[in-house]
Structure to design on (213 residues):
């Protein structure tokens, strides 16, 4: 049985990426939740990962850390279903996933991940607005090309959707002004049954933290 070590669902966008990928690919796994930003976290995560970060996928004695590596492994377990079938689309999906993996630091830092929150007001600076424009451009182009094939960026779900799903929640949290197919895609992600489950659990995470303080 696969095990996925994750951080708080309210706070850990990288955990969400791996978790959503496993869910959408239909892989069975159990969760090992760890509380971030607590005195016990360093010792707890050290049991699972030399990188001392969540998420970590455990498959027997094998430990895989880093969200994108976990998604790649999950895709292999699922017969390659984590990527588009077409070679050109697959290459582009991988490029966009890598761009998310290593980029958009301004938007990420200025619009911090708060999965269950809405109504937050935090203006973006020039770098944040540039990140926002780039992401919406990616979504618009993908959806213009694949809108008849299904609701995800390349029609059916792929790893690139897992990589960008936390951004859809950030847009929801901070009230990003989206239009057309970009707005439709963001709303579709938020309405996804697994994403809704993540948001519900994030709400419980917040309640638990309040009760423990």
């Amino acid at each position: 049985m696969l095990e996925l070590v994750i951080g708080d669902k309210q706070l850990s966008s990288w955990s969400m990426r791996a978790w959503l990928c496993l869910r959408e690919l239909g892989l069975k796994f159990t969760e090992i939740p760890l509380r971030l930003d607590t005195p016990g976290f360093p010792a707890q995560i050290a049991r699972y990962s030399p990188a001392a970060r969540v998420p970590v996928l455990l498959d027997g004695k094998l430990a895989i850390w880093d969200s994108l590596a976990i998604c790649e492994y999950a895709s292999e377990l699922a017969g390659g279903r984590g990527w588009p079938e077409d070679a050109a689309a697959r290459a582009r999906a991988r490029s966009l996933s890598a761009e998310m993996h290593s980029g958009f630091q301004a938007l990420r830092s200025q619009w911090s991940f708060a999965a269950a929150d809405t109504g937050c007001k935090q203006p973006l600076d020039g770098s944040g607005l540039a990140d926002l424009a780039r992401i919406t451009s990616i979504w618009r182009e993908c959806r213009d090309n694949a809108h008849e094939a299904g609701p995800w960026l390349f029609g059916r779900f792929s790893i690139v959707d897992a990589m960008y799903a936390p951004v859809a929640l950030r847009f929801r949290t901070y009230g990003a002004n989206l239009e057309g197919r970009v707005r439709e895609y963001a709303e579709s992600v938020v309405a996804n049954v697994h994403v809704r489950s993540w948001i519900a659990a994030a709400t419980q995470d917040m309640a638990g933290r309040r009760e423990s303080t």
